[in-house]
Amino acid sequence: MGPLNDFSLLFYNAELVANDGIVVKFLIDNIWLILIALVSGGALAWPGLTRSKNSLTTLQAVQLLNKSKVSIIDVRTADEFKGGHLRNAKNIPLDELDKRVAELDKSHAVLLICQSGPRANRAASGLRRAGFADVYVLSGGYAEWHSQGLPTAA
């Protein structure tokens, strides 16, 4: 028999014959390319996997604002809010939200906005604990809204 047919390798207590050895050799020879492909694929999938079910794109937020009564709460600081905000938004900075939650109507949906998203996600958790059912976060925050050329107020 030729050298290729004599090739065998123990792998998980199973003997691999000549043709299986080619696959193993390919995997070993290209391990870095395979790892790079897996890491880059994970990096591409990460935003979709970590986005909460109540996170809205700008398009979804516009649709929500057009179809129902929504309280828009901007959790950025007062200075950030003065620099520009969504129309009809109420500024309640994140560090004041627990004290001012009584100002909000639990019968309306709440759309939370910050500069890019993280503060709004923390605020959403607090509002859900306070008994709000329909709490949404604008994905990408005010920065995304503004970059899309959607209406703002100063």
Protein model, in words:
- By secondary structure, this protein is of the alpha/beta class.
- The protein has two domains: 3-50, no CATH class; 55-153, Rhodanese-like domain (Oxidized Rhodanese, domain 1).
- It is 48% helix and 19% strand.
- It is built from eight helices and nine strands.
- The protein has helices spanning 3-6, 18-29, 31-50, 58-67, 78-82, 97-100, 118-129, 141-147; strands at 9-11, 14-16, 55-56, 70-74, 85-86, 89-91, 109-113, 135-138, 152-153.
- It has a five-stranded parallel β-sheet with strand order 3-8-7-4-6. A two-stranded antiparallel sheet has the order 1-2.
- The chain is elongated, with a radius of gyration of 26 Å.
- The model is unreliable at 1-7 (pLDDT under 50).
Top-tier CATH class of the largest domain: Alpha Beta
Per DSSP, what share of the residues sits in E-state strands of 2 or more residues? Answer: 15-25%
| CATH homologous superfamily label of the largest domain | Rhodanese-like domain
Class inferred from helices and paired strands? alpha/beta
Estimated helix fraction: 40-55%
In angstroms, what is the radius of gyration? 26 Å
Helical segment tally? 8
Gross geometry: elongated
User: Care to count the β-strands?
Assistant: 9
Number of domains: 2
As residue ranges, the low-confidence spans are: 1-7
Mean pLDDT: 83
Reading side by side through the largest sheet, how are the strands ordered? 3-8-7-4-6
Reported for the largest beta sheet, the result is:
5 strands, parallel
Order of helix and strand elements from N to C terminus: HEEHHEHEHEEHEHEHE
Distance between the termini: 82 Å
- In CATH, the architecture of the largest domain is 3-Layer(aba) Sandwich
- For this structure, the CATH topology of the largest domain is Oxidized Rhodanese, domain 1
